[in-house]
């Protein structure tokens, strides 16, 4: 008996992604940006996906101190995930340019992987993307930088004051709040699937994720 055409036709196999992503998270000031630069890989800055200061959906601090920029809801997760997906599948994506001092997007740029099979997406909300990237087969590894909270506090405050990110009183209050919350931040990122580690181990895992035939080998369960 001949096989009918509708049973003989099979959907084409899904095309594997051209690149995979290492999600790099950790408390603000933990050294994510500098470590990503040291890796030599293309880098997607996830902080550029903050919502703008005029967005009515911004979460607010309970003490009335303004927007809570450390809450995941201050971040446009959908747009960030779309950029990660585009980079993995096509090797390029249009990404916003965000100015933290004014809490606004000030432009856009194109990120091109240049054929690289691996890139880093780094930011304090990177762990929010772990489950979706893993489900889509895009995740190479997920890492959470951790260190001494007092060291992170000093590094973060010096950076934020140097760059004029917000007013000095705001930055001091935020820094003290994050100092107290740092261990719980790391615990949350770990619960979302990120591997907690210091910089040397993070660099080693990134190198392993980029080795031939190592795709997916370092992805935490």
Task: Give a structural overview.
By secondary structure, this protein is an alpha/beta fold. The protein has helices at residues 5-8, 32-39, 77-90, 130-135, 149-163, 168-191, 199-209, and strands at residues 20-25, 43-45, 92-99, 104-112, 118-122, 139-145, 195-197. The chain has a domain at 20-147 and 193-210: Rossmann fold (3-Layer(aba) Sandwich). 37% of the residues lie in helices and 19% in strands. The strands form 2 sheets. The protein has a 5-stranded parallel β-sheet, with helices on both faces. The radius of gyration is 19 Å and the shape is globular. The termini are far apart. Residues 1-8 have low confidence and may be disordered. Keywords: ATP-binding, Nucleotide-binding. It comes from Streptomyces glebosus. One of its GO terms (molecular function) is ATP binding. InterPro entries: P-loop_NTPase.
Keywords:
7 helices, 221 residues, Rossmann fold, disordered N terminus, alpha/beta, 19% strand, two-stranded antiparallel ribbon
List the helices and strands and how they pair.
Elements: H1 5-8, E1 20-25, H2 32-39, E2 43-45, H3 77-90, E3 92-99, E4 104-112, E5 118-122, H4 130-135, E6 139-145, H5 149-163, H6 168-191, E7 195-197, H7 199-209
Parallel strand pairs: 1-5, 1-6, 2-5, 6-7
Antiparallel strand pairs: 3-4
GO molecular function, one term: ATP binding
Protein name: ATP-binding protein
Organism: Streptomyces glebosus
């Amino acid at each position: 008996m001949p096989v009918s055409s509708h049973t003989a036709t099979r959907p084409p196999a899904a095309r594997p992604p051209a690149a995979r992503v290492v999600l790099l998270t950790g408390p603000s000031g933990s050294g994510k940006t500098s470590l990503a630069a040291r890796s030599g890989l293309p880098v997607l800055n996830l902080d550029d996906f903050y919502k703008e200061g005029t967005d009515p959906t911004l979460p607010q601090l309970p003490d009335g101190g303004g927007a809570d920029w450390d809450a995941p809801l201050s971040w446009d997760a959908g747009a960030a995930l779309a950029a990660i997906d585009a980079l993995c599948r096509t090797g390029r994506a249009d990404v916003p340019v965000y100015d933290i001092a004014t809490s606004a997007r000030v432009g856009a740029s194109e990120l091109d992987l240049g054929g690289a099979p691996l890139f880093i997406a780094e930011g304090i909300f990177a762990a929010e993307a772990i489950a979706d990237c893993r489900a889509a087969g895009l995740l190479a590894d997920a890492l959470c930088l951790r260190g001494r909270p007092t060291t992170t506090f000093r590094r973060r405050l010096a950076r934020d004051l140097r760059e004029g990110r917000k007013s000095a009183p705001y930055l001091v209050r935020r820094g003290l709040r994050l100092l107290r919350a740092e261990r719980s931040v790391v615990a949350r990122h770990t619960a979302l699937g990120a591997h907690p580690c210091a910089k040397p181990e993070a660099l080693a895992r990134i190198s392993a994720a980029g080795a031939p035939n190592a795709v997916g080998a370092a992805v935490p369960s």
